[in-house]
Amino acid sequence: DADVTQTPRNRITKTGKRIMLECSQTKGHDRMYWYRQDPGLGLRLIYYSFDVKDINKGEISDGYSVSRQAQAKFSLSLESAIPNQTALYFCATSDSTGSQPQHFGDGTRLSIL
Amino acid sequence: DAKTTQPPSMDCAEGRAANLPCNHSTISGNEYVYWYRQIHSQGPQYIIHGLKNNETNEMASLIITEDRKSSTLILPHATLRDTAVYYCIVRGGLDSWGKLQFGAGTQVVVTP
Description:
- The complex is a heterodimer.
- Chain A is an all-beta fold.
- Chain A has no helices and eleven strands.
- Chain A has strands spanning 4-7, 10-13, 19-25, 31-37, 43-51, 54-57, 64-70, 73-78, 87-94, 103-104, 108-112.
- In chain A, the strands form two sheets. In chain A, strands 2, 4, 5, 6, 9, 10 and 11 form a seven-stranded mixed beta sheet that branches. Chain A has a four-stranded antiparallel beta sheet with strand order 1-3-8-7, with no helix packed on it.
- By secondary structure, chain B is an all-beta fold.
- Chain B is 0% helix and 46% strand.
- Chain B has strands at residues 9-13, 18-23, 31-38, 45-50, 55-56, 61-64, 70-75, 84-92, 106-111.
- Chain B has a five-stranded mixed beta sheet, with no helix packed on it.
- Classes of the chains: A mainly beta, B mainly beta.
- Chains A and B meet through strand 5, strand 9 and strand 10 of A and strand 3 and strand 4 of B.
């Protein structure tokens, strides 16, 4: 979904490094989410934000932090990367009204050696 | 959020309709049925969602049974580009905090 842009698309780094994944959206949505996907598993929610001042932990937030710099930007940081954080990371957005679905970016493939 | 059950895989011939079933027998009154698909390693793509009534958009149709315990996603004329994993998800609407619970989904393979 070109309206949700994730950078970088691929990243290889070493254990212990600090990494930031960025997400920006042009959909004007209030809500933004970060998920990770491991091979053969479904998506798991890391953090979500309902607006700039509202950030919440998801089911697997340990080892991660986020920053909502603006309505359109939501970044995910790994303070000290470890190999089991190797995964595919997706950002998603949704409107805050009713049943509005989430729209996903194309993902960041992160490998930690 | 209600749990869903989908067949693990199904094949479909190109040009034919693909009918993907989903059971959600524990769905509650304020929960919607959403369908997404994921083409290998790409971001999940929203397809369609509904509450009670059947829905149709440019991608697909969603048929929800009267008791809301099951639904069917219909891709009217499957193409090779429709090969993907399809996820049926049930969750609340306005009151939900937005988490999407992705299960294993149905791997759909469209063949020439």
